[in-house]
């Protein structure tokens, strides 16, 4: 006679010790490093990555020590150039640009397509490097690589119509991007810019992604794509990568403080620019009742520990709906899984499906933990505080870069968590009683990239959504940066310069009619697509 399996509540199961986790065989940093050396030996020397400029790899720069956020172990650090070397790299890129802009479009398409084939061949290695260098869970790391490849393939198919009556810029495009999406944002942008006829320059993010970007650029360079990849401090390299007269366009993705300095520089020079900056993306709840549909969406907002420009760290909730909101929200935040992205119980097990791994470094985790404690000491109410004991970790591993999910009600106005994007798994909730309060709270950061409003009535949404200062506003669902022909930009201080996405990305890095006004936020005008 068959026995009934024990339920999860059965003490015979609940008292059973959790299995001891191990690192999945074949996924160590050394495995990834050695595979990278085997694929692109020209781009690495001994234990360091090289700088790429003038179509050649150079052992210049001063490598800095670096550690993986996953477990604090050493990884390859950026070989930082000084200002003079960066200027040489920019001038070499201008020479490449002048030659590349004369290459027929059919040949450019062929070279970019060959690059995409090479990236596809090494997809899993690129994803593994993202896990170690910036702490992405395996599934999200693969998605970052795939979005870059699939997105650029779409442009290869569509580029002919986009370039009618348009020409490349006078000089190369300089890319300065944050560390969180090396492939689907930075490499994607670089390959589309090159497809449009420009040489491309990128500065490696200081906080992570060096080896992944180096490998991707090595594969592109082999196919004749005119890419430059250099490392260095923003202050040291900014005169070359932003202010150099050789630069045709500056493309920046990062925080508002650095973005404001770049915006000032390019405005003074009248230089073409695309500056994507942070904003406090908010989700409003107003006259809403479909709570079962909300819970799975709320958990999804914790992907990659909210370390992305379109994360939702602020919920603005109608006070009379607060109890129902909590009943939907708390199960979502309690179900979030985090920990070591490569830890398994058995060598044959697949890699774990986690919502997030570490933050980008231990300093960021400490900063957010300190801000949380400070906000609580000033009156914020902790509604949920996860524990590292709930994480998915190897025995005795370094967990200093990990922060459990946290939720605070009513952070005080004196706290940075009240008005700024935390860029980590810390949610803040604000209660409101009127539509005016709802809109004021949703617009607290003077402009955002995305927002969402959950309300049952379409007419109410149609009336309130245009008053929310975000480039994209979802109705009861999150919005994202988007792929292929979906446009992207920001309102207020979250964006400066040309909008991108679809045809607008190509228009931003090419020249059209002399009287053309690009959609975007510029010092003398704002134009929506």
From TrEMBL:
InterPro entries in alphabetical order: Ald_DH/histidinol_DH (IPR016161), Ald_DH_C (IPR016163), Ald_DH_N (IPR016162), Aldehyde_DH_dom (IPR015590), Aldehyde_DH_Superfamily (IPR050740)
Alphabetically ordered keywords of this record: Oxidoreductase
Signal peptide: none
Ranges annotated as biased composition (Low complexity): 1-11
Domain named Aldehyde dehydrogenase: residues: 63-503
EC number: 1.2.1.5
Top-level lineage group: Bacteria
GO molecular function: aldehyde dehydrogenase [NAD(P)+] activity
Residue numbers spanned by region Disordered: 1-25
Protein name as annotated: Aldehyde dehydrogenase PuuC
Source organism per UniProt: Streptomyces platensis
């Amino acid at each position: 006679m068959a026995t009934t399996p024990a339920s999860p509540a059965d003490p015979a199961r609940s008292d059973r010790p959790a299995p001891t986790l191990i690192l999945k065989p074949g996924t160590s940093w050394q495995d990834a490093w050695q595979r990278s050396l085997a694929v692109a030996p020209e781009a690495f020397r001994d234990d360091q990555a090289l700088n790429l400029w003038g179509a050649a790899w150079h052992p210049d720069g001063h490598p800095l020590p670096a550690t993986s956020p996953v477990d604090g172990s050493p990884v390859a650090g950026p070989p930082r150039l000084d200002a003079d070397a960066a200027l040489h790299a920019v001038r070499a890129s201008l020479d490449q640009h002048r030659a590349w802009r004369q290459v027929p479009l059919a040949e450019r398409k062929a070279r970019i397509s060959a690059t995409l084939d090479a990236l596809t061949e090494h997809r899993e290695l690129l994803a593994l490097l993202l896990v170690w260098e910036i702490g992405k869970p395996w599934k999200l790391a693969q998605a970052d690589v795939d979005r870059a490849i699939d997105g650029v393939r779409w442009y290869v198919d569509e580029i002919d119509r986009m370039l009618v009556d348009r020409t490349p810029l006078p000089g190369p495009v300089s890319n300065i991007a944050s560390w969180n999406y090396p492939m689907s944002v930075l490499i994607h942008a670089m390959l589309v810019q090159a497809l449009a006829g420009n040489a491309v320059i990128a500065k490696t993010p200081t906080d992570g992604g060096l080896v992944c970007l180096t490998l991707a650029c090595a594969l592109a360079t082999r196919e004749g794509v005119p890419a430059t990849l250099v490392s260095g401090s923003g202050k040291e390299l900014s005169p070359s990568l932003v202010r150099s007269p050789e630069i045709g366009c500056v493309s920046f993705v990062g925080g508002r403080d650095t973005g404001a300095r770049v915006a000032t520089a390019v405005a003074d020079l009248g230089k073409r620019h695309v500056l994507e900056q942070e904003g406090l993306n908010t989700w409003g709840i107003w006259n809403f009742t479909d709570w079962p549909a909300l819970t799975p969406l709320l958990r999804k907002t914790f992907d990659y520990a909210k370390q992305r420009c379109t994360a939702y760290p602020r919920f603005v909730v109608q006070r009379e709906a607060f109890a129902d909101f909590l009943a939907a929200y708390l199960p979502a935040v309690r179900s979030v899984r985090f920990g070591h992205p490569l830890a398994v119980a058995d060598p044959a097990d697949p890699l774990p499906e986690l919502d997030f791994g570490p933050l980008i470094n231990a300093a960021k985790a400490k900063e957010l933990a300190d801000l949380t404690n400070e906000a609580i000491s000033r009156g914020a109410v902790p509604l949920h505080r996860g524990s590292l004991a709930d994480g998915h970790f190897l025995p005795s591993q370094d967990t200093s870069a990990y922060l459990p999910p946290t939720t605070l009600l009513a952070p005080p106005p004196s706290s940075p968590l009240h008005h700024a994007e935390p860029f980590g798994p810390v949610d803040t909730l604000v209660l409101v009683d009127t539509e005016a309060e709802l809109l004021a709270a949703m617009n607290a950061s003077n402009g955002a990239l995305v927002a969402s409003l959950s309300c049952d009535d379409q007419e109410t949404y149609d009336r309130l959504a245009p008053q929310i200062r975000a480039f994209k506003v979802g109705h009861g669902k999150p919005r994202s940066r988007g792929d292929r022909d979906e446009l992207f930009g920001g309102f207020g201080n979250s964006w400066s310069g040309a909008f991108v996405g679809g045809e607008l990305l190509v228009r931003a890095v090419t020249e059209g009619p002399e009287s053309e006004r690009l959609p975007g936020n510029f010092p003398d005008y704002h134009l929506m697509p």
